[in-house]
Structure formats: C-alpha cells, structure tokens
C-alpha cells in the first residue's frame, strides 16, 4: 500500500497521512457487527445516537478547526457545519418515527402491521465540501435503522471523516457498526462493487453519480441513493429600486457562499430588460467580498476552493466561457500565489451556447432574457434539477415559477442554497435518483414489511372446491 496525505489548502501543511484501507476487511467487520446491532432495541440505538450528538457538541471547537484547516472554509462556516452534525440526530429520530416507524391497524378484521427492516451493510461515500455534515446525513439515519456502515470519506478530507467516526466510538457505538475505509478513487470503486454490500449512499459529483447508477443498474437488490450537483438557476424579476441591495445580497450568497462549493449554489443569474441595476449591485457587492484563509481576522466571507486541482478546473471552465465570447464583469483571479484562493467572478454569457456543466467554484454566469417565459425556458435548459430560486415578483409569479421549475429545492426571495435538514433534499434530472436525503433519508435506510398477523388459525374462505 502506498501512503498518501491530505493538506491544508492555504498552507500546504499535511493534515492527515495514511494508507488505503483493506475494503474486504472493512466490509467483513461491518457484516459481523450488523446482525447484533439490528437486534438491539430501537430505544438503545436512539440513546447512542443522542450521546453522539452530545459528544459532537463537547468537541465542537476542535472539530470545526479541523474541518476549516482541511477544507479551507472559514472557521465560522465550519462551526456552523458542526452544529448541523449534532442537530441531525434529533431530526433523524423524528423522521425515523414518522417515515419508517411501526404502524398497526386492521384489514378485513385481521390485525395488520407495518414495520421496517434495515438493508444490512451500507457504504457511505462522502464529499469534500461538507466532509462531516453530508455523510453524517446518511450515517445517522442508517445506524438508527439498524444498518452497519462502511464510510469512505473524500480523499481530500480524510481527517475530518476519521474525527467524526471517532466521536461515534466515544459515544459507545459498538465496534464494527461504523467502519472507516480511507482511500482514493480505487478504494471507492472497490467498495461500491463489493459483493457483500447491500447498498450505497452517495453525495458528490454528477459524473460519479452517473457511474454508480450504471454500475447498480443490474443490481435491483441493492439500494442506491445519490445526490449530485446542479447548474442551478436564479431568476431575478420585477425588483423594485428599494429592494435592489437586498436582492443583490441574496444573489451573492447564492453564488459565492463556500467559494461556490455547494451543490445548491446559483450558477446562472437570469434577468429581464430591467436587470442592469441588480447586475451592477451584485458586481459592487462581489468587490466587497473578503476572501481568505479559514483563521484570518477579520473573518472572510469565503475561503479557497479545496485544492490546486479544483482551482485549475474552475480556471479552465472560466477561460472557456471567456473564449466563447463571454463579457467579463468581474474577472476570476488567484488572490494569493501558490494557493487555490480565487476571487468571485461574474461573466455575461447572454446568447452563447454555454455547456450545461456545474462549475464548482465562485463563478456566476449572467443571462439576459426578454420576458419571463424566456427566463423559465433558460432556467430549465439543463440536465440538472437540484435548486432554483426566484427573487422578486408577486405570489402569482412565484406560483408560475414553482409549477414550471424542474428542481427539488424551489425558493422564493431566498438564496438557492437555503435548505433545511427538516425537509427532504434532492433533485431531478442528473442531480439525483429520486431518493431525496435530509428528512427523507429514513426512506432509503430501511425497507417496509407489511404483515397480516392473526393470533389464531382461521379457515380460509375458499371458492371453487368440490363438495
């Protein structure tokens, strides 16, 4: 096995060093532990999850500092992420009871029961942009349901994933119920293809999601839940002069929060003939954005993208837009030499045949249209379907927008990246496979079993028998 590392994107310092995991051993350990874990009463599984939430809170500052260091995101944002990790437990307990709990009734005088069973051993593949929050959103409901989990963190954020798994151990989770399998792409492929796996839960790129979907196509016996990215539209329409600054703040948050490294970030701003004032306000506000290292003072709005390779991909996509004839409103620049710290960039691509791709960084494309019908057509001109937002308009216009939008998260006068863990989260098109996560994660972590249960033997009413 070859050793590899994760590094601080701003300093290059090594954050974690290790070797690729033995996938066979990881899955075997989870398989050995799963049966006993599933037989434990739900109340006991809940109690361990609740202890985990308390342990997360107790280690919150160290956890946040590690996430900030490994991803480069501002410390304030990493603290917010840790808070969502702890809060996920109570939300998952409520969702499990509501969506995958036990129900009893009667059908034609016969007692009827609905219960749920765990799938068995599930793999969780985590992303780098939220290395704790997003895999945690799969892991908590999977464990509550009685599954064992093999968790492969992103190869860019292994330390954050290992730290989170250690908090489960501290909370008393039995050995083998959550196994961390560190590794790079080959490890992920080996885990996804492992014959002893009962399913896989994934958050990450659309290309990987499509590959997983194809690989699982011949395995209907395995559950697959994927949530990928989006080429998300934000329509700004009928903005009153008094509301331009507020609207601009929503655009800036939608486009540039987390340096554009959220799957729900707005990639495309669509405006009508009266959009100049808003565009100017957005550009002026982008000029005020403080970009810097995670521990800088004053605190930055956004940090770097995750590494130099990610920065190079964003720069290549930007260069392609400019080469096509895009009108640069704010250029994409490296702000600190030798780091992946990028400036927020805005380009007008009106009338250009722009590729339908997610640029996972701080790049906003502006598209001018003649009327609202054209705005909706442009918004839906994508293979993706994760998030969409309308800023401005009245309730009637929003209802038109909601009805016509092809997205799983549809907001009004809120950023595209405003989603709550107490609601389902997912998209259509190539943004997912109709298995939304967050509050609905309970749905794919267990399968329903319907039962008719009579305490006594009663003769069946048979028709068509000879006397």
Structure characterization notes:
The protein has helices at residues 23-39, 42-58, 60-71, 75-100, 133-145, 158-170, 185-192, 206-216, 244-256, 276-287, 308-323, 372-379, 395-404, 441-445, and strands spanning 3-7, 14-19, 103-107, 110-118, 121-125, 148-152, 178-180, 199-203, 223-227, 232-237, 266-271, 327-330, 345-348, 363-368, 387-392, 409-412, 424-425, 437-438, 446-452. It has two domains: 3-228 and 432-452, 3-Layer(aba) Sandwich (Aldehyde Dehydrogenase, Chain A, domain 1), CATH 3.40.605; 232-412, Aldehyde Dehydrogenase, Chain A, domain 2 (3-Layer(aba) Sandwich), CATH 3.40.309. It has a seven-stranded mixed sheet with strand order 12-13-14-11-10-15-16, sandwiched between helices. A five-stranded parallel sheet has the order 7-6-5-8-9, sandwiched between helices. Strands 3-4-19 form a three-stranded antiparallel sheet. It is α/β, with parallel strands linked by helices and 467 residues long.
Keywords, please?
single chain; 467 residues; Aldehyde Dehydrogenase, Chain A, domain 1; Aldehyde Dehydrogenase, Chain A, domain 2; 5-stranded parallel sheet; 19 strands; 39% helix; globular; SuccinylGlu_semiald_DH_AstD; N-succinylglutamate 5-semialdehyde dehydrogenase; arginine metabolism; oxidoreductase
What is the CATH superfamily of the largest domain?
A: Aldehyde Dehydrogenase, Chain A, domain 1
How helical, in percent, are the residues?
Answer: 25-40%
**Which secondary-structure class do the elements indicate?**
alpha/beta
Strand content: 15-25%
User: What oligomeric state is this?
Assistant: single chain
**CATH architecture group name of the largest domain:** 3-Layer(aba) Sandwich
What is the CA–CA distance across the termini? Answer: 75 Å
Q: How do the strands line up in the largest sheet?
A: 12-13-14-11-10-15-16
**Approximate shape:** globular
CATH top level label of the largest domain:
Alpha Beta
Task: Please compute the radius of gyration using only Cα atoms.
Answer: 24 Å
